[in-house]
Specification:
Elements: E1 5-7, E2 20-26, H1 35-49, E3 52-58, H2 64-69, E4 73-76, H3 88-98, E5 102-106, H4 112-116, E6 123-127, E7 139-142, H5 152-156, E8 161-164, H6 173-183, H7 202-213, E9 218-223, H8 232-241, E10 249-255, H9 262-271, E11 275-279, H10 284-289, E12 293-297, H11 300-308, E13 312-316, H12 324-329, E14 335-339, H13 344-360, H14 362-372, H15 380-390
Parallel strand pairs: 2-3, 2-5, 3-4, 5-6, 6-7, 7-8, 9-10, 9-12, 10-11, 12-13, 13-14
Antiparallel strand pairs: 1-4
């Protein structure tokens, strides 16, 4: 059996002050990208605020720099991320060693047998946005609006606590703050918000300078997930370069950690000053704040765009995003460009066409902003942390 190793986080050791120890089992790599671990970090920060100690358990070291930067304690199991049943004995030992009595799991690689081998030593919370099976767990979380398509309530009634719907969207702290500032609303959760981390304002300052220099130009955010598996970003940029109506747009491109098309994007940026690349963005809300429109792959980022009230075009690039198209394309929330896996060129054409529509239709943009602010209030991570605390 491979040996596990651990990182104990940064700052003061609060172990003796914590009433609970919560384990979080999640991975990040070029296949699963960053979305799972980012939402778990967001939830973990709220758990810490509620005096819960969190320990991350990962199969490998891909995301350890991210966990360290967030001040999170972690244990590396040195196992195969896509063969989770093989890790159960080792994980059991680590859970007992660290005193974890609750385990939050965020992975599509789990099985019923995996949970069966763990549930006698801890309560299990599972983030399940696919409903591919009925699992022996104590709590199920699906914050997506499409949860209504699946019989969660009928299936899990009396078996597990359910956290369903957009009230539980785990937006990062910067988006919580931005939403409250934009709407002037108080948090709906009945506990105080954790202190926000006001990081460096360099990005915001630079962006504002550029905007002053480019009066009359429109700023468009581009995001395609951590891996950009279908090379969407370069396709969007190349397509836009051939469209006269988009010639006055400045594209702010988020290049994820696992993006394998960095060199191609860098070459495009060197030729076109209207293309700006951003690596390792520490505060996405600040970057979004400086953008007028967005093009993005589906996923949690769409909820972040809702919090920022940014009219957007979105596309699908994974099975678990398919149902997003129904909700976000409804009631003029966003414009849907299709599934890039099925027909990349057609999807890029639709992105181009929808961007032009947004640029030309001010009334539509206004209606979209009004619809977006109704989707979520940004307090989902805090609500999840509270419910796990009470479990």
């Amino acid at each position: 059996m491979s040996m596990a190793w651990r990182f104990t986080g940064c700052g003061r050791d609060l172990t003796n002050r914590m009433e609970q120890v919560i384990g979080i089992r999640v991975d990040a790599n070029s296949t699963v990208a960053m979305g799972h671990i980012m939402r778990c970090i967001t939830i973990a920060k709220q758990m810490k605020y509620l005096r819960q100690k969190t320990i991350f358990f990962t199969a490998d070291s891909y995301a350890h720099d991210l966990l360290e930067a967030a001040g999170m304690e972690y244990v590396c199991l040195n196992t195969a991320w896509n063969r989770m049943e093989d890790e159960t004995q080792q994980l059991r030992e680590e859970l007992e060693k660290t005193g974890c009595r609750k385990l939050l799991v965020d992975s599509y690689q789990v099985t019923r047998a995996y949970f069966d081998k763990l549930r006698d030593i801890c309560k299990i919370i599972y983030i399940d946005d696919c409903f591919e099976d009925v699992y022996p767990v104590d709590m199920v979380i699906n914050y997506n609006a499409y949860h209504v398509r699946f019989p969660y309530k009928e299936t899990y009634e009396g078996r597990a606590k359910l956290l369903l719907g957009t009230a539980y969207v785990p937006l990062r702290e910067e988006f919580q703050r931005a939403y409250l500032q934009k709407t002037g609303m108080e948090p709906k959760a009945e506990v105080s918000l954790c202190p926000f981390d006001f990081e460096t304002k360099k990005v915001l300052h630079i962006l504002k300078q550029r905007r002053d220099e480019q009066k009359g130009r429109v700023n468009v955010l581009l995001s395609s997930g951590g891996g950009d598996t279908y090379d969407a970003l370069s396709g969007i940029l190349q397509s836009a370069a051939e469209e006269p109506a988009l010639s006055w747009a400045v594209f702010h491109v988020v290049v994820g950690k696992f993006n394998q098309n960095r060199e191609k994007l860098q070459a495009l940026a060197e030729k076109n000053p209207a293309i700006r690349l951003y690596h390792n963005v520490s505060n996405m809300a600040e970057l979004m704040e400086e953008c007028d429109l967005a093009v993005s792959a589906a996923g949690t980022v769409l909820f972040e765009l809702c919090a920022m009230q940014i009219p957007a075009v979105f596309f699908v690039c994974a099975d678990n995003q398919l149902y997003d198209s129904e909700f976000f394309a409804d009631e003029e929330r966003m414009l849907f460009a299709g599934d890039i896996r099925q027909d990349r060129e057609e999807c890029l054409k639709r992105i181009n066409r929808n961007l032009k529509i947004l640029l030309q239709d001010k009334a539509l943009r206004k209606r979209m902003k009004e619809a977006l602010c109704q989707v979520t209030d940004g307090q989902g991570a805090l609500r999840i942390a509270e419910e796990i605390w009470k479990l």
